[in-house]
Each structure stands twice: as C-alpha cells, then as structure tokens.
Backbone:
C-alpha cells in the first residue's frame, strides 16, 4: 500500500501535468479559431472560382487537357495530409487506418504532407516518393509545391490517378478522414469540406448564366485548371489544420479533465490513509493509557 508521502508526490505530479495540458488546450483553442477563420475565408473565393470553371466547361465544347485525361497507368499516387506534431488524439491514426485499409497498394506512391504521414509510410514500408511540410497557416506556395510533384507524376505517365487524403473539419468535436480524387479532373467541384455551422459544398454545374470569355473558353480553362488544382490542395491543407487544432484542443481538455479527476481520487485516498493513521495513533494511545491504569 502506498504511503501518504507517495500519494502527495503523485498529486503534485498530476497537478503539474494538469497545468501543462490546460495551457496546451488554451493555445490549441486560439490556433483553432484562426485556422477555422482561414478555412472560412477561402470558401467564398473557392465557390466563385468553381462556378466560373463550371461555366467555362459548359461553353468550352470538346476541350482536351492533360489534367482531364487518364494516363492509363495502373499505378496511383496518394497525397497524404497529416500533422507534423502529435497530441491530437486519434486524428492521424484514423486517417492512416483508412488509407491503409482502402487505398494503399504495392502500386501506390505516397506524397506526404506532414511529418506523421512520412514516419508512418517509412515504418509501414510504403513507397514514399516525396515529403513536404507546411506552415500554420499553409500558404499557396506550399500547396503549389505539393501539387507540382503530383502533376509531374501524372503527366509523365508514372501514375494514372492521383488522390488526396486528409481530415475533413466538420466541427469542433467531429473530424472525418476523407479521400478525394485530384487527377484526372472529371468534373469541377468544390472542396467537400465542412466548417462548423455550414453546409458542405456540392457539385457546381455551369450553364445557369451567360458569360463572355476572352480570348476563348478553351484558353481560359487551360489557364485556370492549374490554379484550380493548387487552390484545391490549399483549401484541403487549411481544413486539415483546422482539424488538427480542434482535435488537439479536445484531447488536451480530456487530459485536463482526467487529471483533475485523478487528483480528486488521490486526495480522497490520501485523506482515508491519514484518517486511518490518526485512528491507529488514538487506539495506541488509548491502549497504552489503559495498560498504565491497570
């Protein structure tokens, strides 16, 4: 049985841990608010750009572009978007389990965006083609660098299909691992990611409004498609960052609550031991007095 000194040491240790997790919860909460705002800020731009692209596709006629044609290769590339740091609950674990069970095969090349994904790919023996990290918040230049590697693999015929796996930010409590097709582009659609309090984007058809394009719809579409891919990746990085900070805030809150509950349990156990020790001392004193009296 532990002594009262041991329990006091455990209580002190748990209190110190609780202070750390509480501080990390507050930091994650502040970062989550910024990450969520960044994701929301890009929504209106993404929606308008995708609607314009929908109109261009409608008026472009028989338009051919390398990004819209399957290369015929059976090999696939997967852009794996994870976090650089841990302490965010099962966020990375759920995503890695999903891609491992459903998408990763011997013919899959991994493009990692995030240190945790690269580490797992190395341990699991996956074909890790490239590794990237991205800031907080992510920038368009970082998204462009990731997209460039995927496009080069696709255009060279090394892979015939490119997917991107990330964690979709639904709300503060819920983050959903998802995999979307990046190449070939078969239809123009918004990033199917949800921010708390908003509906997820749906397919964006064209043809509802008449537009005049200069020089021509085909040329405009050819110029916009690379930007479309870059912004798709950027928006996904923003959504993944919001998921990361949200999951870390929830994980740290749970850790703080568990630490506080453990402190209560240890304090109760400590008080019981002290009460038992005091009772034993009183019994010893009473027994000694009775013995002297006799």
Residues:
């Amino acid at each position: 049985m532990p002594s009262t000194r041991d329990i006091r040491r455990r209580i002190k240790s748990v209190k110190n841990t609780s202070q750390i997790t509480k501080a990390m919860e507050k930091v994650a909460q502040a970062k989550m608010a910024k990450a969520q705002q960044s994701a929301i800020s890009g929504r209106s731009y993404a929606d308008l750009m995708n609607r314009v692209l929908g109109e261009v596709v409608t008026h472009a006629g028989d338009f051919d572009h390398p990004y819209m044609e399957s290369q015929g290769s059976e090999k696939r590339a997967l852009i794996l978007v994870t976090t650089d740091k841990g302490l965010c609950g099962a966020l990375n674990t759920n995503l890695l389990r999903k891609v491992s069970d459903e998408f990763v095969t011997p013919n899959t090349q991994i493009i990692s965006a995030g240190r945790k994904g690269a580490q797992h790919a190395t341990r699991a023996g996956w074909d890790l083609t490239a590794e990237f990290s991205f800031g907080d918040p992510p920038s368009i230049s970082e998204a462009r660098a990731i997209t460039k590697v995927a496009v080069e693999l696709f255009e060279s015929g090394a892979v015939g299909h490119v997917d991107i796996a990330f964690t979709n930010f639904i709300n503060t409590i819920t983050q959903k691992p998802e995999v979307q097709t990046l190449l070939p582009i078969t239809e123009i659609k918004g990033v199917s990611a949800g921010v708390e309090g908003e509906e997820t984007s749906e397919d964006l058809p064209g043809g509802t409004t008449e537009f005049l394009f200069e020089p021509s719809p085909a040329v405009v579409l050819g110029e916009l498609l690379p930007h479309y891919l870059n912004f798709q990746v950027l928006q996904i990085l923003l959504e993944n960052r919001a998921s990361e900070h949200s999951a870390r805030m929830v994980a740290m809150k749970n850790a703080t609550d568990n630490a506080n509950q453990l402190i209560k349990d240890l304090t109760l156990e400590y008080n019981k031991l002290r009460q038992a020790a005091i009772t034993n001392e009183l019994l010893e004193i009473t027994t000694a007095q009775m013995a002297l009296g006799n």
Remarks:
- The longest strand covers residues 161-169.
- Confidence is low (pLDDT under 50) at residues 192-207.
- The chain has five helices and five strands.
